[in-house]
Hints:
By secondary structure, the chain is of the alpha+beta class. It has two domains: 2-181, Ubiquitin-like (UB roll), CATH 3.10.20.30; 207-411, START domain (Alpha-D-Glucose-1,6-Bisphosphate, Chain A, domain 4, 2-Layer Sandwich), CATH 3.30.530. It contains twelve helices and 17 strands. The chain has helices at residues 23-30, 82-93, 103-116, 122-128, 140-155, 159-166, 174-181, 219-223, 247-254, 257-262, 361-380, 396-413, and strands at residues 2-8, 11-17, 49-52, 55-58, 71-73, 186-190, 196-200, 214-215, 230-231, 234-243, 267-273, 276-285, 288-301, 306-315, 321-334, 337-349, 394-395. Strands 8, 9, 10, 11, 12, 13, 14, 15, 16 and 17 form a ten-stranded mixed sheet that branches. Strands 2-1-5-3-4 form a five-stranded mixed sheet, sandwiched between helices. α2 (82-93) crosses α5 (140-155) and α3 runs parallel beside α5 (140-155).
Amino acid sequence: MESISIQVNGRSVCRDAEPRTHLGDFLRDELHLTGTHLGCEHGVCGACTVLLDGQPVRSCITFAVACAGQEVTTIEGYDGDPVMQLLRPAFTRHHALQCGYCTPGMLTTARDIVLRIPDADEARIRLELSGNLCRCTGYQGIVNAIQDVLQQQRDNPDPRIEELRQMPRSRPTPAATAAATAQPSVVRLPTPQGKTQERPSSPAPANRSSGGTAESASPADSQQGTATKAKGKGNTIDAFFDVPFPLERVWQFMGDLPAIASCLPGATIESQEGEKVKGSIAIKFGPMSAAFAGAARLERDDAVKRAVLRGAGQDSLSKSRAQGDITYELQAISAENTRVNVNMVYALQGPLAQFSRSGLVKDFVSRMVADFGKQVTRRLDGQAPSATESEPSISLAGMMWSVLWNRVRGWFGRSPKP
C-alpha cells in the first residue's frame, strides 16, 4: 500500500492504495465519486474520462499513484464551470443522452473541444469524439449540442470561457500522456454529408441465418443465439419471403417502383425519372412519428435477377437522417414459386437512432418483410388493397405488441420437459 495525496474537485485527499490501483477504481471505491463510469477498462470506450491537470485522460488505464500532487476533476466537480453550464442544457435540448452511461465522459471531452477548438466544424467534432463510444444516441445529438455551445460562444462570448481558453494548458505527466494518447482501433463511419469519420470499434462475429432475419449486434448478442453481421456502411439485416408466382413475373413486378411502394403502408412516391424516385415514408413509434423524405435509385441486373435500391432521407421534425441499400435477389423454388432474399444495410443518425439498436429490431423486420410479401402476393393475384392498408404509416408500436404477445404465448405454451 502507498499513501496518495491528490486534489480532487478542489479538495485535498489522502488515501492508501495499492500501486496497481487505477485512478477510476480509486475515485469510485475510495472516494465514492461514482459519476466516473467504468466501461471497457481498456481505454477504448471513454466512459471513464476525467481531467488530470486540465487534460482529458482515461482513468481506467491511469494509475492512481502516478497522479500524486496533481489536480483531478470528475463530473461531480463542474458545478461552477461556465462551459458545463452551457453544455448540460444543450445536451438536454438536443437529446444528446439516453441511458447516461457515457455522458460523464462525453461531457468532459465536449468541454475540452469547446475550449481547445473554438472554430470546430462537424467533421472535427466527430473526430475529437472518436474516443468516446455511445450505444444509444447515434451521436448526432451530441455533435449538435457541442455545435450549439460553440455558436453561443461566438454570438455572445462569455468572458469566463474566453479566460479559460487563454489560460496555458498544464503539461500532463507521463502517466496522463499515456492515457490521453492511447488510441483504440478505428473504423470509418459515414457522416450526413457522405464523408467518413473515425470511431473506435470492435468487429462483431458474423453468422448467417438459414431463414428469417439476421441483425447486426454485439458479440454478447451472438453468444445468446442472435445471428449477427456487420458491414462498414452500418447495420445489416437479412430476410426473405416466398411468393406463389413464377420467377419472371415476380421479377417484372419488383421492378415497378410505384407498385412496390403500394405494398408498403406509409410509402409514397412523389416523382419518378427512369430508375430514380423521390418520395417519403411515414413511421410511427408509439406517440412519436417520423416522415423520412428523400430519394432512391434502383439498379437491376436481369441476368441474375438481382437489384439494389439505394436511398437516403431525413425526417423534418427530428432531423434524423437515414441512408442505406436494400438488395433483393430472386430464387426459383419451383416453376410456380419464387423466394425473394432481402439484404438491408442501413445507417440511422439523430434522435431516432436509439430505435435501431433494440433487440426487437429483428422481429420488427421479420414482420415487415412478411407483411410486404403478403401484399406483393395480393397485387400479383389481382386483389384489391386490404382494409388495413388505409393506415397512413407503419406502426412499430403495433408490431411490438404483436411480437411481445407472440413471445408470451410461446413461453406459456411450451410443453414441460420430461
